[in-house]
């Protein structure tokens, strides 16, 4: 007989909103890594706010901000090895940054530069996925390949709560469960699928419990607690490397900004809701924790902000001063060795623009 109480998941949490450990047990994470966690969160918050301003100034196209979700992305990404694969969605630039994506590459992507979708050879990140939940299948494919090769690398797929309503998510989870692929399904439950609140998306109490139907491990973690996120992901990664199969992690968090810059969240959010979550800001929580441990100070905060602003502004200037590739170069990164059809398409595009521009190739 079905017992709804058996589906109750206790949220994993290590820090309260004031930055205090919830039990006397030390977190077991080295001080330098704890500092690195906060520094990375601080830097990507600056990056996100800068890109949002640039979009409002008409310097980049539509943008999907991630402020509020830094702990979820950075805590999980730091639990990976550089040889592991990340399969991101359009809101996961923070995880990509931590895993080795250069700032210049991120800027190429948001400015619509052709090189923006070309990941550096030594960085294991798939191109940003726009199709909701499609990256879950890609992660399973990558992790299945590593398993067949006898390797120990894992693949993590980042997605939102809305993606769990897509067929791709369920197909990916089922395949991963059957073949015990080393896959981490990392759901950032930020409470909204664009404008649709979670309660209108599903009747289940948690997303983590969906793991039960497929016979895999499910974890619900406080997505604004970077220590809890790191530990939960580290455990899932170790299980995957040991051949124990996939894990579904639900990181409960909140998108402080709009879905994208074309969205107006005031149309669907209740008054005061955002301020309630502001008090749960992952940066504030971690900063207080570090201050309590005498690992952080206002002076270090100012130095971090100044250094990253300088680094970011230099990268922005360099990218904005670049000339755009010409139209025929869109075919250059499709295959390592272009086939005849691709060559024909490239030449056709080049000829078309020569005719349109009177012999001048344009970007």
From TrEMBL:
<feature type="domain" description="Dehydrogenase E1 component">
    <location>
        <begin position="39"/>
        <end position="327"/>
    </location>
</feature>
<comment type="subunit">
    <text>Heterodimer of an alpha and a beta chain.</text>
</comment>
<keyword id="KW-0560">Oxidoreductase</keyword>
<keyword id="KW-0786">Thiamine pyrophosphate</keyword>
<dbReference type="InterPro" id="IPR029061">
    <property type="entry name" value="THDP-binding"/>
</dbReference>
<dbReference type="InterPro" id="IPR050771">
    <property type="entry name" value="Alpha-ketoacid_DH_E1_comp"/>
</dbReference>
<dbReference type="InterPro" id="IPR017596">
    <property type="entry name" value="PdhA/BkdA"/>
</dbReference>
<dbReference type="InterPro" id="IPR001017">
    <property type="entry name" value="DH_E1"/>
</dbReference>
<keyword id="KW-0670">Pyruvate</keyword>
<protein>
    <recommendedName>
        <fullName>Pyruvate dehydrogenase E1 component subunit alpha</fullName>
        <ecNumber>1.2.4.1</ecNumber>
    </recommendedName>
</protein>
<dbReference type="Pfam" id="PF00676">
    <property type="entry name" value="E1_dh"/>
</dbReference>
<comment type="function">
    <text>The pyruvate dehydrogenase complex catalyzes the overall conversion of pyruvate to acetyl-CoA and CO(2). It contains multiple copies of three enzymatic components: pyruvate dehydrogenase (E1), dihydrolipoamide acetyltransferase (E2) and lipoamide dehydrogenase (E3).</text>
</comment>
């Amino acid at each position: 007989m079905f017992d709804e109480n058996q589906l109750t998941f206790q949220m994993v949490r290590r820090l309260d909103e004031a930055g205090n450990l919830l039990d006397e047990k030390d977190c077991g994470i080295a001080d330098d890594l704890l500092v690195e966690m906060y520094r990375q969160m601080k830097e990507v918050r600056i990056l996100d706010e800068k890109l949002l301003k640039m979009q409002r100034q008409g310097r980049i196209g539509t943008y999907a901000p991630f402020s509020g979700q830094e702990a979820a992305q950075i805590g999980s990404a730091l639990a990976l090895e550089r040889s592991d694969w990340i399969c991101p969605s359009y809101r996961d630039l923070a995880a990509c940054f931590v895993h080795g994506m250069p700032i210049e590459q991120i800027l190429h992507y948001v400015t619509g530069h052709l090189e923006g979708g070309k990941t550096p050879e030594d960085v294991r990140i798939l191109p940003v996925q726009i199709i909701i939940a499609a990256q879950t299948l890609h992660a399973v494919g990558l992790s299945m390949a590593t398993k067949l090769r006898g390797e120990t690398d894992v693949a993590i797929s980042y997605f939102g709560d809305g993606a769990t309503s897509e067929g791709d998510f369920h197909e990916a989870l089922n395949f991963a469960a059957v073949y015990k692929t080393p896959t981490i399904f990392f759901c950032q439950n930020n409470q909204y699928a664009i404008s649709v609140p979670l309660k209108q998306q599903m009747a289940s109490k948690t997303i983590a419990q969906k793991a039960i139907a497929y016979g895999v491990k499910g974890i619900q973690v406080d997505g604004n607690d970077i220590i809890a996120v790191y530990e939960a992901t580290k455990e899932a990664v170790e299980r995957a490397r040991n051949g124990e199969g996939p894990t579904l992690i639900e990181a409960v968090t909140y998108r402080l900004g709009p879905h994208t810059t074309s969205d107006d969240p005031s149309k669907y959010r209740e008054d005061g809701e955002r301020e309630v979550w502001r008090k749960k800001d992952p940066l504030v929580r971690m900063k207080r924790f570090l201050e309590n441990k005498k690992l952080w100070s206002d002076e270090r905060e100012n130095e971090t902000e100044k250094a990253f602003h300088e680094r970011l502004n230099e990268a922005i200037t360099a990218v904005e001063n670049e000339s755009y590739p010409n139209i025929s170069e869109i075919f250059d990164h499709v295959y390592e060795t272009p086939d005849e059809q691709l060559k024909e398409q490239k030449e056709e595009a080049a000829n078309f623009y020569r005719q349109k521009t009177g012999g001048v190739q344009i970007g």
